[in-house]
Amino acid sequence: MKTEVLLRSIGKINDELIADAESEANTKRKPGWAKLGIMAACLALVLCTGIAANAIRSNATAGTFTMDVNPSVEYTIAKSGIVKNVRCLNSDAENALSDVALGKQSVETALTRTVAAYEACGYMENGEATVLISFDSRLDANAELKASLSAKIRKALEQTDAVGTLVFHSELTENAEVAKIAEEFHVSLGRADWILTAANKTGLPTDEVSRMSLDELLKFQEVSGISSVSVSKFISLEEAKKIALKDAKLDELAQKIVFTREELSRNQGNPCYLLEFYTGTNQYFYQIDAKSGSIIYAGKFITLSEAKKIALDDAGCKDKVSFTEETLVSGGIKTPYYRLVFADAKTQWTYRIDAVLGNVLEKQQKEIVTTDFISLEEAKKIALKDAGLDEATQKIVFTREELNRNQGKPCYLLEFYTGTNQYHYQIDAKTGSIIYAGKFITLADAKKIALDDAGCKDKVSFTEETLVSGGIKTPYYRLVFADAKTQWTYRIDAVLGNVLEKQQKEIVTTDFISLEEAKQIALKDAGLDDATQKIVFTREELSRNSGKPCYILEFYTAKKQYSYKVDAKDGSIMEAYHFILLADAKKIALDDAGVSEKVTFTEETLVAGGIKSPYYYFAFESASARWTYKIDAVLGVIMDKTCDKIIPSAPEFIGLEKAKQIALDDAGLDETAQKIVFTREELSRNSGKPCYILEFYTDKCAYSYKVDAVSGDIIGKKTDWFSRQESETVPETSQNSDSKQRTDD
């Protein structure tokens, strides 16, 4: 037992000694291994931190770019080139992309998915969409990343086969107005910048311009501010023209061929070139497929002059006639024809002449009944009496004396001037009532006012002298003139002679072609010869504001209006348009509306300036309805129209004469004791509270009144003294005019 205990004790001692020895050995070895472990841990920490930092840097935001089609979307790009996230700028984009994963994708994948979603929703059809890409200032400043992104964007969009034109917008400087437009219409800053530019150039409100397509907006932009890339593979315009001429068996070297239309139409299901041209014997119309070069449509017609001769010979006209309509109606119909309307002093004819064979398809003849009309002399006397003029005591020169038969209500159009004023009148040809009357200062006075204000001492040349009236609230003269160093643009109130607006800019001299050279280039391109026909230039302006200086020319003949931009340096044609006349466009609208009563035009605007389909915009009204029309300015077809019935107000109105007397009594004036000239007498029905708007003046003061049409209360008034700086203004409620305008409005 003792032996067993002893042995256990010895074993215990040995075990303890061994354990102690091992512990001591371990204690001696510990410092070296600890250092090595700490170093390894630090190295691992550094590596992990570096990897994490690199990942953070790669995922940091490098900038954003936006893509506009109609939907607008913004992509946030990481420095690694990956799309971090996207932001839809409008509801169209939200609807199309709500279920599409675009974040944490490559740019190519994100764009491909975006385009596929747009195609599914119908925003990108026919493979001819225009796409606007706008980079923010951060990406724009990073040339390397911007170039890489641009290449990726172009490659991705090319592979979709959905894009026809890709446009990269230049860097945007900070502009509060652009930012406001972007926020209001939910578009990118790039598109907002385009909207502002187009609005400034057309004079249209931004809400109307915002509805334009990218194709339309693109044509208003400065060439220096964009980089446009054609993604589609189209044949060139010259190739299309050669295809058409070959099919028509024509040779430009052997005969004179004049092209009147050269247009790439992208709206069709199949993009095509629209070509119109004529020779000495025929007119031609072609549609050429822009991709394959195949002929979609080909038409060969007799010339207009030949069609007119056929109609005149058939009618047996011996007296002098005037044509009021000369229209080629084709557009793919079974039997294209010319519609001709003409008349002599006793008879009016309407003809439809087969445009291919020259046969008479239809004709109508009616006698002109003139017994119910007042004579021209009676109309002139009515106008002169209203203007307070007497031919026996002063010189009066009539520049226009015309009986207008095309309107729903025939009227005499009279224009005349004295030594101090110009006058415009429309006199009802049946009743002799005054439809419209306008009294303006003379052009010479307006020019003198502008020159005096500009302080010009050197010789100047006027490039524009235009009276803008036609029913606008404040008729004015638009004058553009320049000396050798400076160009001025003025708007002078055509009634009061006040300076409404002026601009002045220095002229940077360079080697430009002359104005006459530019005019000859335009006339040659239009196929016109001023030696054989009357050509009237209404605008001859050297535009220096553009990135590329150019001459802006507008002129018309008896048949058409023309608008040209000619490069001021090399003489190349930058833009060319041939339009139907304003009078013809108005007649198309009135005929379509079927108006049988008197109407008043409140707006007559040609909207062109580079848009795809230039058009005339008309707003006119009768006592019972109000119409708006968009008439294609080239083809004469109706693009859009609206008609709203005017519901007369239930209360009885006090009448114009009573309203005038209320205003005169308030002003302390007596028509029997002094000369008072009314320049505006208008019943405004658009407002919630109908009122009479009256403007008149004496030799000392001009007055403006608004009189409640029901109660006769004075809503607002204003006086402007001619002899001293004194005015009185009473707050007035905003009114929108909706009635016929008798005088300067």
TrEMBL record:
PepSY domain location is 235-296, 374-435, 513-575, 654-717
Q: Where is this region: Disordered?
A: 725-745
Q: Which residues form the Anti-sigma factor RsgI-like middle domain?
A: 66-192
* Annotated Polar residues bias: 728-738
- Stretches that traverse the bilayer: 36-56
UniProt keyword annotations, A-Z: Membrane, Transmembrane, Transmembrane helix
In terms of superkingdom, the source organism counts as: Bacteria
For the keyword ATP-binding, the answer is no
An example of a Pfam family matching this protein is PepSY
Q: Where does the record locate the signal sequence feature? A: none
- Gene3D superfamilies assigned: 3.10.450.40
- What protein is this chain from? PepSY domain-containing protein
Task: Give the source species.
Answer: Dysosmobacter segnis
